[in-house]
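User: Please check token order:
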Amino acid sequence: MCLPRVRDEEPAQVYPEGTRRRHTSDVSTRQSLDKRIHYMQNLRKEKRKLGKRFARPAPVPDPGITWSSE
């Protein structure tokens, strides 16, 4: 039994209508969201680091002790 050859009436679309070539400067919403999340995480880390650094002030040296080079 032979199968008949079927020819498409319309050629297959290589590029659908919705796609367009994006400029390299275009940033997708996903990329901008990821960048914003990364920025906020870095801010949180920096805030934590500075909070630890300035939580306790440096001890004040005892006024009775003087450093002399004699």
Remarks:
- The mean pLDDT is 76.
